[in-house]
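wait is this the right file?? whatever heres the structure
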């Protein structure tokens, strides 16, 4: 799935298809010859920093996690901190400080008391986690390199919009300070990118979880604003049906429903996996489709608060997955073995399930991908395509996506 983002450049600049291996690349375009691009990376690809205050209380089993007097107020890398993750003494601290908790008075999630966080590098692609070869594939690093090779410049014509991946967008009307702040910053970034590039509208490109942030951002922005500032939206590896992996993860860690709100938004959606569709979870006593998600969450031990948060904050976002009323291209892979059903025949969710696989992109099942044809495809000014079988003849239709 990660390699799809590198190939995405072929949609932007299809003239590259004409160059054989070994021939020199085309000359870089001048800044005035391209539309500015804003990238939203996938899950866990944004870097987070944290600092501890006197209010932070480390877990009783990990007293070493408390900051010393000379460390309080100092910002440090929270995510991704590979050194801390590999240190048995520090890893529990990282896990505790990454948590978010639900505040019933504010009806919103917040950091653990005494932990302050910030997203690194907003406005720049340098904030993406692309410091290793594996991360370059996963976190848009190769796409950034490819765009830079044809003339894009970070902070001038190429911009990044990292976000706090721990906190997914909540339903409209539900408090969500993290997403509200992200929306304000992204709107200002888009306007600045346009202003600094001669008033040209931007091309938004998202990957995976970034698609949920981008769609909610676009659909909650005034239509007049979208028409003025967004030339095209490219959504890679995001589907309206969600993915089954989230259900399996919650079986293993049901408390994540109240500690990781992003775990709820990507659950399979009734829009795609509702009544009349094959069950997602099979037991000898009953089966579960996405329409039975609340009952499933209760059955696996998710706290009642977690079920309520799913119904009030996450489910409306799933049901509201719709076209953003700007020209849109959806890109997804196919032909990869993908989880499509979990079988707990004895109804014992503590046991390892039998997993049934089908077609998809490795995470999104084919049904979720194909649903784009109806959920997005019926909208005006869009195009949908499967990148893994993208025919060359399609590229002329997209050749002007980045060039005026």
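ok assuming it is, sequence goes like this
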């Amino acid at each position: 799935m990660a390699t799809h983002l590198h190939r995405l450049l072929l949609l932007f600049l299809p003239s590259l298809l004409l160059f054989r291996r070994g021939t020199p690349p085309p000359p870089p375009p001048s800044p005035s010859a391209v539309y500015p691009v804003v990238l939203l990376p996938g899950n866990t690809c944004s870097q987070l920093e944290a600092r501890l205050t006197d209010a932070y209380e480390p877990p009783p089993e990990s007293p070493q996690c408390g900051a010393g007097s000379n460390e309080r107020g100092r910002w440090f890398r929270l995510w991704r901190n590979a050194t801390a993750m590999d240190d048995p003494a520090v890893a529990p601290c990282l896990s505790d400080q990454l948590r978010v908790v639900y505040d019933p008075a504010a009806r919103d999630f917040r950091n653990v008391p005494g932990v302050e966080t910030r997203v690194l590098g907003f406005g720049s692609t340098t904030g993406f986690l692309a410091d290793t070869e594996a991360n370059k594939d996963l976190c848009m690093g190769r796409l950034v390199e490819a765009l830079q090779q044809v003339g894009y410049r970070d902070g001038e014509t190429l911009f990044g919009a990292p976000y706090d991946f721990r906190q997914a967008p909540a339903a409209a009307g539900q408090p969500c300070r993290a997403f509200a702040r992200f929306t304000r910053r992204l709107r200002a970034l888009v306007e600045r990118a346009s202003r600094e590039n001669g008033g040209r509208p931007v091309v938004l490109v998202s990957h995976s979880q970034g698609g949920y942030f981008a769609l909610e951002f676009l659909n909650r922005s005034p239509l007049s604003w979208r028409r003025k500032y967004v030339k095209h939206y490219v959504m890679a590896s995001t589907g309206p049906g969600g993915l089954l992996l989230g259900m399996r993860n919650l079986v293993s860690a049901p408390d994540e429903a109240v500690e990781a709100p992003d775990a709820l938004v990507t659950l399979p959606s009734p829009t795609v996996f509702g009544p009349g569709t094959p069950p997602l979870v099979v037991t000898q006593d009953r089966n579960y489709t996405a329409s039975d998600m609340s009952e499933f969450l209760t059955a696996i031990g998710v706290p009642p608060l977690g079920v309520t948060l799913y119904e009030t904050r996450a489910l409306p976002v799933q049901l509201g997955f719709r076209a953003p009323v700007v020209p849109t291209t959806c890109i997804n892979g196919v032909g990869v073995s993908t989880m499509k059903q979990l079988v707990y025949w004895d109804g014992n969710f503590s046991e390892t399930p039998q997993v049934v696989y089908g077609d998809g992109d490795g995470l999104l099942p084919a049904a979720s991908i194909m649903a784009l044809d109806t959920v997005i495809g019926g909208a005006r000014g869009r195009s949908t395509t499967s990148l893994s079988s993208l025919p060359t003849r399609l590229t002329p239709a997209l050749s002007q996506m980045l060039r005026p």
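The domain at 3-11+32-47+120-398 is CATH 3.40.50.1820 (Rossmann fold). so i think its the right one actually
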